[in-house]
Each structure stands twice: as structure tokens, then as C-alpha cells.
């Protein structure tokens, strides 16, 4: 089940953590092929909502260092992190089923949201980040 912030659904990267280790549950494999390429293309085309300076440490393989992008995108309904594409490509971590089903329902056809909707998504994420206070510097993309 996705997280909701205001009227936006937030695509989860992981389903939780256990002893500091992230995990996912009940996510069917997403094999390499044409559908996976369409999925990654959709993620890449999302309107940038927020971007943090630098990159984050790979939570599944810290030996890789800071390789994970810290950028959030939207299509006006869902908000997702660029890290979803990273973990799919680098670790074969499948996306949240509800998010994938939503994109399949759109036939992976991206329609750019109105600028005000992108700004609203940014405000929603900023309020979420303020509540979590993780110390990441986030700047709004104008």
C-alpha cells in the first residue's frame, strides 16, 4: 500500500527495515525486457519535484559508496524517487506492485503534470522531510 501525502501517492522503495537492513515483501520479479524498459523510461521522464545535493549510499551494498541519486519525480498523481530505478537496475529490486500496476494501466504513457501540481508535490515532500528531519539538504526545482 503506498504512502499518501496530501493527494499524492508515494511509491515506496522498500517495505520496511529489520535491524537496519531494508527489505521488500510480496513483490513479483520484474524481468529484463521491453516492459521493464518502458517502466524505466517513464520514471526517467517524470517532472523533477525535489533534488538533494550529492548522492546517497547504496543501502544494499555500502561498498559501492554514494551512488544512489536523491531526486524525486512526479506525474501529478504519484511521486517516486530516482532510487527506484537505481535499485531495479543495480540490484534487480522490483518496484512496489501498486505503482507498477498504475503505470501498466497508463500503458507507461507519461503525461507531464501542470506546473502547479509539481509545486504541490514539492511542498508535500518538503513537509514530509521536515517531519522526518534526516538532515538532507533539499532544494526545490523551479
Please render the helix and strand layout as text.
Layout: E1 3-5, E2 8-10, E3 16-18, E4 21-23, H1 34-45, E5 47-57, E6 66-74, E7 78-81, H2 83-91, H3 97-105, H4 115-132, E8 138-140
Parallel strand pairs: 2-7
Antiparallel strand pairs: 1-2, 3-4, 5-6, 5-8, 6-7
Can you walk me through this structure?
This protein is of the alpha+beta class and 142 residues long. It has one domain. It has 4 helices and 8 strands. The protein has helices at 34-45, 83-91, 97-105, 115-132, and strands at residues 3-5, 8-10, 16-18, 21-23, 47-57, 66-74, 78-81, 138-140. It is globular. 20% of the residues are buried.
List the defining traits of the structure above.
single chain; 142 residues; alpha+beta; 6-stranded mixed sheet; 4 helices; disordered C terminus
- Beta content: 25-35%
Spatial strand sequence of the major β-sheet: 1-2-7-6-5-8
Structural class: alpha+beta
Major sheet description? 6 strands, mixed
Work out the helix count.
Answer: 4
> Helix and strand string, N-terminal first?
EEEEHEEEHHHE
The number of domains is: 1
How far apart are the termini? 30 Å
Query: Can you tell me the overall shape?
Result: globular
Low-pLDDT segments: 136-142
- The residue-averaged pLDDT reads 91
Helix content: 25-40%
Amino acid at each position: 500500500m503506498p504512502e499518501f501525502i496530501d493527494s499524492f501517492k508515494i511509491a515506496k522503495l522498500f517495505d520496511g527495515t529489520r535491524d537496519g537492513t531494508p527489505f521488500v515483501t510480496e513483490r513479483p520479479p520484474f524481468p529484463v525486457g521491453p516492459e521493464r524498459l518502458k517502466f524505466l523510461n517513464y520514471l526517467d521522464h517524470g517532472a523533477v519535484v525535489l533534488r538533494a545535493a550529492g548522492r546517497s549510499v547504496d543501502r544494499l551494498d555500502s561498498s559501492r559508496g554514494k551512488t544512489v541519486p536523491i531526486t524525486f519525480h512526479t506525474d501529478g498523481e504519484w511521486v517516486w524517487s530516482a532510487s527506484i530505478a537505481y535499485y531495479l537496475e543495480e540490484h534487480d529490486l522490483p518496484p512496489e506492485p501498486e505503482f507498477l500496476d498504475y503505470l501498466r494501466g497508463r500503458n507507461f504513457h507519461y503525461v507531464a503534470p501542470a506546473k502547479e501540481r509539481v509545486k504541490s508535490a514539492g511542498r508535500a515532500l518538503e513537509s514530509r522531510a521536515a517531519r522526518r528531519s534526516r538532515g538532507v539538504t533539499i532544494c526545490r526545482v523551479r
